[in-house]
Amino acid sequence: MNGSHAVLIPQATIRPMRVLVVEDEKKLADLLARGLREEGHAADVAGRGEEALWMARAVPYDAIVLDVMLPGLDGFATCRALREADVWSPVLMLTARDAVENRIEGLDSGADDYLVKPFSFAELAARLRALDRRPKPGATELRSDALALDLIRRTATARGERLDLTPTEFSLRAALLRERGAPISRRALLSEVWGYEFDPGTNVVDVHVNRLRRKLEDRGLSDVIRTVRGSGYAAG
Description:
The chain is α/β, with parallel strands linked by helices. The chain is built from 8 helices and 11 strands.
């Protein structure tokens, strides 16, 4: 892990996570665990793949940081064993191997992301936050304080009562909820909700956000979509 300038993240965008660090190099493992704890996360450490397996089966970790070069069961085999044991915590794999075939092997073994050593802690922390924002495998619902989205039936309820949303409004609200309060840009919304890989130069995002806001406000749900100047929109 190389040195880097501190990156300040607005506290509201950070959700405390429980992370398992699987690394046999004690100094690096301790540095990672300390850094995660300083960001407000809980961090456990395992030095071997076999140890990581029983720990991950016993504790529902929000993320697992997994080194490839481990004694005994290596990182690839550990990741495959985790998935075979129905452990679906997101896995961020660490390795000194930067060849494409090594990265492919890591992803094919069930890892969600791949980080090559040396790396900055700021990048590792950002990748963990990104993994945490993804829908969890098997997730069927997204929920805020008073609004729930059923991802299977694609229905919405507000305070337990059905809320009629158009397919676009449903997708827009789901995209905002997945970010857990972090801002998402208009360009990212255009890509995720409308499938545009370019900005067509329209105000379609703003129009639909305003319609969705009015529909939610009619149900007494105010401040559920925030405008973040210069960044886009965020779930309130």
